[in-house]
Amino acid sequence: MNPADVAQAALPLPSANVSLIALFLQAHWLVKCVMLGLLSCSVWVWAIAIDKTLLYSRSRRSMDRFEQAFWSGESIEDLYRSLSAKPTHSMAACFVAAMREWKRSFESHARSFAGLQMRIEKVMNVSIAREIERLERRLLVLATVGSAGPFVGLFGTVWGIMSSFQSIAASKNTSLAVVAPGIAEALFATAIGLIAAIPATIFYNKFTSEVNRQAQRLEGFADEFSAILSRQIDERA
Length: 237
Known about the structure:
Layout: H1 3-10, H2 20-26, H3 29-70, H4 76-84, H5 90-107, H6 116-136, H7 139-171, H8 176-236
């Protein structure tokens, strides 16, 4: 064996740059598009998470304040006048919708109250449905990113590995120093997919549970208020 060849083989191979920025810059253009798309989804997920956290906190405080005012002994007529003059959400919106239907029926001097109870329950159900729709808005984005993010990242990984194998075949060099950078670039896409998908799944499950809890509070209040109005309807009838 030629001593020069032995000395050359003993020299360390040049180290490849495997920093995150270098992995992105060296990746195939399609893999770059996948990475940028997943990073955009990750930013979108966190923006939705912050917005929903603040929204649900405001909604809980609003329901607490309304329940405190409703059960404090204040006249429901006075409470209705104070709430109907401004935009309402959550439990207050359900109360205002029911009281508005109640007052319409009496202001029209209706002689029969047979369908009043059904109409009041109907408007409260519609109000609750609108409130739940407002609370659930953009949760589908979290579900989509959480379920599709890993597969999109895997697509970038597969494409990157295919490009790496093509480069290996073209250079006819299978040393680890040649293979490692391309494989690292491809696996980086999967990592970004998981970074986007894991928080999206966690937030989706957390927010779905929160929406269910608030929906149960709204439905419980609707049942209680419907019973109160039903007794008054029976007295007036």
